Amino acid sequence: MDNNISILQSTRYTYQPKVPAMLRAGIGNIQAVEGNASTGSADSRIKKLFPKTYGMKEVSFKEGKSTASGKKQVVGVILSGGQAPGGHNVIAGLYDAIHEAGKDNVLLGFKGGPSGLTDDNYITLTGDIIDQYRNTGGFDMIGSGRTKLETEEQFKKVAAVAEKHGMTAIVIIGGDDSNTNAAVLAEYFADHDVPVQVIGCPKTIDGDLKNDEIEASFGFDTATKTYSELIGNIMRDANSAKKYWHFIKLMGRSASHIALECALQTHPNVCLISEEVEKNGTSLESVADSIVDSVVHRAAMGMNFGVVVVPEGLIEFIPEMKKLIAELNDTLAAKGDQFAELESWEEKTGFLSAELSEESMNVFSILPVDIQQQLLMDRDPHGNVQVSRIETEKLLATLTETKLKALKAEGKYTGKFSSMTHFFGYEGRAAFPSNFDADYCYSLGYTAFLLIQNGYTGYMSTIRALDQGVDAWQAGGMPITKMMNMERRGGQDKPVIKKALVELDGKPFQYFAEHREEWAADTCFRYPGAIQYYGPSELCDATTITLALEKEARK
Predict the structure, then answer these.
(1) What is the spatial distance between Cα 312 and Cα 426, in angstroms, rounded to a whole number?
(2) Residues of the chain by 3-state class (helix, strand, coil), percent to 5
(3) Cα–Cα distance measured from residue 488 to residue 499, given in angstroms and rounded to the nearest whole number
(4) Which residues are known catalytic residues?
(5) What is the distance between the alpha carbons of residues 127 and 109, in angstroms, rounded to a whole number?
(6) Where do the structural domains in the chain lie, given as residue ranges?
(7) What is the pLDDT of residues 32-81, one digit of tens each?
(8) Residue 92 and residue 133 in contact, taking contact as beta carbons nearer than 8 Å
(9) Which CATH class is domain 224-429+505-554?
C-alpha cells in the first residue's frame, strides 16, 4: 500500500454513496416535474434586480420517461468559499451523472474558486482524478477561493471562457454568498443571451443556508460531529482533572446552529446562543454574569471546573457590540485607505473617536486593546468583520475572572477559577465526510446535472426529506432568487441569500432551553466519540440531533 495513504482513506475511496430510490432509475428514466411559480422576498427590489430569473417554477424529479435534452454537455464546476466536508462528493456525483448521460460529455474543474473562471485556470476532470477524492474531506481536488463575481468585467470574462470551451453550464458549490454569485451570474447570462446555465449547491458547515427547500447545508453534519468529539474529549479531561473552566469558541459567523447542535450532543454547563442574546437585548456584562452564576453555583458544590460553548458570531449579536461593528464596517468601507495610512495606535483611536457615535466609542474604549485591534482587522471580500479572528472566548474568560475576583473580595465566592480557551473551526471544515454527508453530497451533484440536462438555470440543487432515510429522499431544484433579500454589505444594500438563524421557538432550541439549567448545575457531560463510518446503520448513518428534533416537531 502507498505509505502516503491511510487505511481509512483507501477504504473510503471505494465507499458507494447511497442515493434516493428515484435516482437509482438512471439518467434515462428520470423526468422533471414543474410545480408552482416561486415567490421570494417581499422586497420588490429583488424582482427588479432579477427580471429574467425571478418567479421561476419549482422543480422535482421522479422516475419516468426522461424529459432531458440529449445534447453534448460541457460543464464547468467550482468550489467556492470555505471548505466543507463532502464537496468532493458533489463533484463525484456530478461527474458520474455527466458520463452516465453521454461518454462524450466533459467536466472541467476550475481551480481556486470563482477566480478560476475569470482566469481560465482549469483541469479536465477524469475518472482517475475523481477516484482519488471520493468520500474524502477538503477542497484540494481543485481548490477554492472567495472572489466575488459582481462586476460586468468579470461576467464578460466568464462568458468568454465558457465560449472558448463550448461550455453549456457552470455549477457553483458554495454557501450563501457563493450562491448569490450564482444567481447574479445566471441573471447576467440570461439578460445577455449567453447560452450557459448556472446551478448552485448548498454548502456551509455553519448551517445557515437553510430554509423550507434546503433542510440542511452539506458539511454541517460532519463538522458538528467532529467538534462534538473534541468537546467531549475536553469534558472527559475536565471531569478528570477537575480544575479548569474551558471556554470553547465554535465556528458560526452569522448563526448559532453549530453551537446549538454541539450543545445537544455534549451537554456543556453553559452554551450561549447568539439569537437569544440579541432577542433579549443582553449586554456584554450580562452575558459574563450568566457564566459567573454557573461558576459560583458549581463551586459551591465543590466543582471548580466546567465547559462554556461560545459561537464565533456572538459578539455581533450583543446589541452594543453589533452597533459598534456596523459603524466600524461603514467607516472602514468609506475611509479604509485613510485609516490604513495612520501609523500610531493613538492616531487610529483618535480617528475613530471622530467617526463613531459617542455610544459606540464608549463601548470600544472599555474593550481590551487586543480585542479592539481584532475588530479593526481587514474585512473579508464581502465587507464583513472576520469574527473568527476575534477572541471572544478569551474576552469572556477575562471578564468572568474579573467578576469572580470582585465577588471573592466581597466574600461571595470562595471557589477557585482557572480558565483555558479553545477555538474549534478548521478542525471540522475538511474532515472525512460522515456517511450522511457523503450520501447527501453525491445526490446533490447528481441532481445538479439533472437540472442542467433539463435546461434549468438560476436554480439550486436540493434534496429533501433528509430525515426519512436515503431511500425516501426527494431530488429537485429551487430558483435561487426565492431565497434572496436585501442586506447591508460594505456600506451598500446588496441582494444576498437570506441567512437562516436559530429559531428560538423551534424544537432544537426548545429542547436545549428545557435542559440547560440541569446541565449548568450538574456534570451531565455527554461523550459522543468519533464519527463512525462502518457498522450498524443507526450508528454510522445517524443524522444530527437538530434534524431529528425538527422531524419530531413536524409529526
Answers:
(1) 13
(2) 50, 15, 35
(3) 13
(4) 206
(5) 13
(6) 21-219+433-489, 224-429+505-554
(7) 999 999 887 767 899 999 999 999 999 999 999 998 988 999 999 999 99
(8) yes
(9) alpha beta
